[in-house]
Amino acid sequence: MTRDLLDFYTNAPLLELGLEADRIRREKHPHSTVTYIVDRNINYTNVCVADCGFCAFYRRPKHGEGYTLSFEQIGEKIEETKALGGVQILIQGGHNPYIPFEWYLDLMRYIKRNHPIHIHGFSPSEVDFFAKTFRMDAVDVIRELQKAGLDSIPGGGGEILVQRVRDIVAPKKAGADRWLEIMEMAHNEGMKTSVTMMYGIGETLAERIEHLQRVREVQRRTGGFTAFITWPLQPENTPEMSHMPKTDAVEYLRTVAISRIVLDNVPNLQSSWVTMGMKVGQMALTFGCNDFGSLMIEENVVSAANTTYRTTTDELERLIRDAGFTPARRRQDYSIIPADTPAAA
Ligand code: SF4
Q1: Which of 262, 320, 316, 319 has the alpha carbon at shortest distance from 290?
Q2: pLDDT tens by residue, 129-140
Q3: CATH number at residue 279
């Protein structure tokens, strides 16, 4: 099976891959709706000790540009988000050794009490970092965060879930097995999560297929992944990977298509126009994607590598229509928000 998939990914004509992915997408989403979400990425701290070679965002402890946001600053960002029709925050940060666990719990409670909104936060790498730093079981970290207000977990920090690759690009971060184990724990605690793949970091095509199959296997057991998102490395400004070649649009579309084909048990695939630009983002809708991702009000990590594409809901909806689909705003759980609800301008 692996060999067939690898052969298909490597050798099939682009349009054949696309047609098969589109067939699966239409089976799962027979209507012509393409969804998107209005949300905000809040990077609560950029201080990090993980030193990932591909990361342009983090600063080492004591670096003059290091920051940690206050609860009030985070609250303000949430209010701005809600005023623009945003329905969730994506809250992630570096592995900051100076923040105590209580801070995270207090933050969840503070948000739910003062600025209630869906909190999609803390990738498995952060959960693993908390578990190690605070000498807790990862499942207790998840339970405590959930009790304090965390609603769902993002699939950040997955990159390529094959240990050989992680040993090279992110050796200090949760390993491949651990990353998936934490996702499975979260699913078993009743939490939904998303899952990602960042490619172009020195992995082979076979390792990309292995990543997808490992995700598929967890999904077979838990059904807890709501969506899959893939994008290529943005090498500009990264500490150790600026020499890496930028992968092209064809490779992106092939990768989206094979992801849709392998992950036939994951309901939603998001197009990554933030990294690929609008045109390619639109094309991805006929290569397996049924979701246009988010109209993100702030995205520090990608924009730190100079690849931010910003837009507005009107423009986003026009792009979806021009690609032949009907746009619909959604919540984190993919339920649709009625069209007459005010949105970002
Ligand atoms: S990707 Fe995340 S964990 Fe890695 S260095 Fe950047 S902020 Fe730290």
Answers
A1: 320
A2: 999 999 999 999
A3: 3.20.20.70
**In this predicted model, what pLDDT tens digit does every residue of 51-83 receive, in sequence order?**
988 888 999 999 999 999 999 999 999 998 888
Ligand 1 mean position, distance from CA 55 (Å)? 6
Closest Cα partner for 48 from 157, 140, 191, 189?
157
Contacts of residue 122, defined as CB under 8 A and 6 or more positions apart, other chains included, come to 91, 92, 104, 130, 145, 150, 153, 154
| Domains of the chain: total | 1
Residue whose CA is at the smallest distance from ligand 1 atom 4: 52
Comparing 273 with 131, the larger pLDDT belongs to 131
Q: Ligand 1 centre from 243 Cα, in Å?
A: 19
Cβ of 315: how many Cβ atoms within 10 Å? 12
**Joined tokens for residue 118:** 């869906």
Does residue 142 sit within a domain? Answer: yes
Main-chain phi, psi angles of 280, to 5 degrees: -70, -35
